[in-house]
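Build the 3D complex.
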Amino acid sequence: MNLSVQLAPQNKKGLPLTNPVMTASGTFGYGMEYEHLFNIQKLGAIVCKGTTLEPRDGNPQPRLAETAYGMLNSIGLQNIGVDALIKDKTPAWAGWQVPVIVNIAGRTIDDYGVLATKLDKVAGVAGLEVNISCPNVKAGGAEFGANPESAAKVTAAVRKATSLPVIVKLTPNTGEIVQIAQAVVAAGADALCLINTVKGMSIDVKTHKPLLGNGYGGLSGPAIKPVALFIVYEVFKVVNIPIIGCGGITNATDAIEFLMAGASGIQVGTASFVNPRAPMDVLEGIEKYLRENKIEDIRELIGIAHR
Ligand SMILES: Cc1cc2nc3c(=O)[nH]c(=O)nc-3n(C[C@H](O)[C@H](O)[C@H](O)COP(=O)(O)O)c2cc1C
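Done.
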């Protein structure tokens, strides 16, 4: 059985994965936190926590709220900063079999270029995932991802600064996601990640105030799966680069739906909070599905729902 996929066919370095199962940024730390739970080296790729130029403390507490079939978060990109990441995390990754992709976010377009320059040629970094879709920060993030022009500008700045494979992660919080996807492709992205969280809120009926310290947050988990699946399906029709599906994937059936909609890779996010072994369970479930259905190459499934 062949489970391997290529997420950056137009890139010189390429981004070959032994299988399509990845972890979603912000839900799997830097990978090492999960090493004792299962063999993380078997995953297709790990995407690390969103990384900014400077270390950040994130938003005021509370930053998490449970919802029906999902959760809201307003972490606000709490992270150690790119210099500490390069010094403390990448040396371990360089010895790993599983590729690690660094998720980056900036306050300005220049920030994205500087981050890409710093991470270019760092051993242990297999690619960049450009977050122009974080709903929880005031400057940068989703602001850049909300229209085709600014999304293209950020993509072009990163493209210019690195030869690493560049994945651009888009927000569903816009009416223009198809146009944004096309603009990002034209600006040189190697792959798209669809989607980041959906903006939402909860109100505390005792205090009469928004429950999250930030007022609102990003909805994730099974509640957003149909939204993410539809976006993958729609964007697949108009782009010619690989798509990574993300949003509510909890089990192998969810993942296979995304492959059928057109995703070449999938990311498991919130499900890891409920079951830390979820990415591995999804991978094993996909293998079982292929065996049972006598499918020799996973690529046969990619986009099959369109045929
Ligand atoms: C606690 C938390 C932190 C997150 N942090 C990031 C981040 O730093 N960068 C990013 O691009 N996405 C981040 N995300 C979004 C996820 O990577 C993913 O796109 C989203 O949660 C949808 O997938 P899911 O429903 O499987 O969780 C975060 C999500 C959660 C729940």
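The radius of gyration is 18 Å.
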